[in-house]
């Protein structure tokens, strides 16, 4: 399988990050990943088709917000918190706090068995 492209730290742009975080599903995914744990794509539940969830995960990866790792036929995703903090100090925490306060992304959750 083809290896996913992840932008280098200096390639991550503020506009790409903000555009990726403009969707409630993607914000919900980032909120779930904010605990720092790597999650299998199968653990993530959202009220969208699997192909749409895959699209959202790709948008986050392409913006430099997440890193995807493939192991056999399974894919895993983790938040690039340290990279985002290095590139845009102090950006992520208030965005996620505001999202939690407003309930943005609450429809995204972990599978019951996770």
From TrEMBL:
PROSITE patterns associated with the record: HTH_ARSR_2
Pfam (any one): HTH_5
Domain of life of the native organism: Bacteria
Residue intervals of the HTH arsR-type domain: 6-99
Keyword terms: DNA-binding, Transcription, Transcription regulation
Record's keyword annotation contains Transport: no
Transmembrane spans: none
MF (Gene Ontology): DNA binding; DNA-binding transcription factor activity
Name of this chain's protein: Transcriptional regulator, ArsR family
Species of the source: Microbispora rosea
Species classification: Bacteria, Bacillati, Actinomycetota, Actinomycetes, Streptosporangiales
């Amino acid at each position: 399988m083809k290896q996913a492209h992840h932008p280098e730290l200096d390639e991550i742009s503020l506009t790409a990050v903000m555009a990726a975080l403009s969707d409630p599903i993607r914000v919900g995914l980032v909120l779930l990943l904010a605990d720092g744990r790597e999650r299998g794509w199968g653990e993530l539940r959202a009220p969208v088709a699997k192909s749409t969830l895959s699209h959202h995960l790709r948008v986050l990866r392409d913006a430099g917000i997440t890193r995807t790792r493939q192991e056999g036929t399974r894919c895993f995703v983790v938040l690039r918190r340290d990279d985002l903090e290095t590139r845009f100090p102090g950006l992520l925490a208030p965005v996620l706090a505001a999202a939690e306060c407003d309930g943005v992304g609450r429809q995204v959750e972990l599978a019951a068995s996770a």
